[in-house]
Design a protein that fits this description.
Elements lengths: L8 E8 L4 E9 L3 E6 L13 H4 L3 E6 L16 H15 L5 E6 L1 H12 L4 E7 L19 H6 L4 H6 L3 H11 L9 H11 L4 H10 L1 H13 L4 E10 L8 H7 L2 E9 L6 H4 L1 H12 L2 H9 L11 H20 L1
Parallel strand pairs: 3-4, 3-5, 5-6, 6-7, 7-8
Antiparallel strand pairs: 1-2, 2-4
Helix pairs in contact: 2-3, 6-7
Length: 333
């Protein structure tokens, strides 16, 4: 019989973040332990489309569009990684009702994932970072600080990147897809068209550039956490692209300086875009990593285990209170 491909389900959730209310678009797929997948730039949830079906038999995959990107709303500010992580905490914990969950991030999604794990170490069971090290933890012998690439500097210039790329979104984005990839044929016309659709929407390029404009704040925020003596307590996985366009073992080396349990390395013959260049290898590595003891503990403790919650945490609490009242009535009868 032909293999059935799990269906993607699209949703919206409005969360009251630290600065404003944000409408987040997210996509769910699968059944099992909750797994949050965080995209990078210049991408959206769509970068996980190949990996999610491979994990769907064991994990309830949730892939949101970060605020400002994809089909999420576009506030004027709040693009520092601490605020972005809080958006996703509200999505996972308050809206979907997951007490504990695993997190995987790619590119800027890695920075958001790491921040989420710093702020909620008891809730994040596993942390995987793909091709971007921990912010503020790039020693000179490993290529200097994060932010030393030309486009990091260009995106920091106020207003100019927006002015030069309006109407030319495909030309600009396609440059990164072609020059960051070591596997031929990954970014087809249809795939690029989807990313261009997302980033050509009003305000989307500005939001994407804003991920870079908060870098100094992000680094300072991260260093303040680790200078306090904090270390990431959950199992961590650091993977980089093993080809000429990837970061190799730098991600694992970075995690070793700030985490207690670290594994990882590089994905052979792969550039920066690991989820799309080597989805099978990534899915295999994630299944192995997430099958550790902590994942089973998460299953026992998670709210709404084994499926994507379709109601808010408030609704879950109301149901629990109703069940308690029924139990008390039964005891008195």
């Amino acid at each position: 019989m032909p293999k059935v491909v799990p269906a993607f389900s699209h949703h919206f959730a409005t969360v009251a973040s630290t600065d404003t209310r944000v409408r987040l678009h997210y996509v769910s797929c699968g059944d099992g332990l909750p797994l949050l997948l965080i995209h990078g730039w210049p991408q959206t949830w769509f970068e996980w489309r190949l990996v999610m079906p491979m994990l769907a038999g064991e994990f309830a995959c949730i892939a949101p569009d970060l605020r400002g990107l994809g089909d999420s709303s576009r506030p004027a500010g709040g693009y520092d990684k601490k605020t972005l992580a809080h958006d996703l905490w509200l999505l996972m914990h308050e809206h979907l009702g997951h007490a504990r969950f695993a997190v995987v991030g790619h590119d800027w999604g890695s920075a958001v994932a790491a921040r989420l794990a710093m702020d909620h170490p008891d809730a994040v069971t596993h942390l995987a970072l793909l091709d971007v090290p921990v912010l503020g933890d790039r020693p000179p012998e490993e290529g200097g600080r994060l932010g030393d690439r030309w486009h990091h500097q260009f995106h920091n210039v106020p207003d100019l990147p927006e002015a030069l790329t309006v109407g030319r979104e495909r030309t600009y984005l396609e440059f990164f897809f072609k020059n960051g990839c070591d596997v031929a044929g990954v970014f087809t016309d249809d795939v690029i068209a989807e990313y261009v659709r997302a980033y050509a929407q009003p305000g989307a390029m500005r939001a994407g550039f804003s991920l870079y404009r908060t870098l100094a704040q992000d680094v300072a925020d991260t260093r303040a956490v680790f200078e306090s003596g904090f270390r990431l307590p959950m199992p961590t996985l650091g993977l980089g692209g093993g080809g000429s366009r990837g970061r190799g073992n730098i991600v694992r080396a970075s995690l070793r300086r700030v985490a207690t349990h670290v594994e990882g390395g590089s994905v052979a013959d792969c550039g920066h875009f690991i989820p799309e260049e080597r989805p099978e290898a990534l899915a295999h590595e994630l299944r192995r990593f997430l099958a550790t003891k902590g994942a089973r503990l998460a299953a026992a403790k998670a709210l709404a285990p084994g499926r994507i919650a379709t109601r808010s945490a408030k609704a879950n609490r109301a149901t629990k209170a109703d069940e308690t009242r029924r139990a008390r009535r039964a005891e008195g009868s």
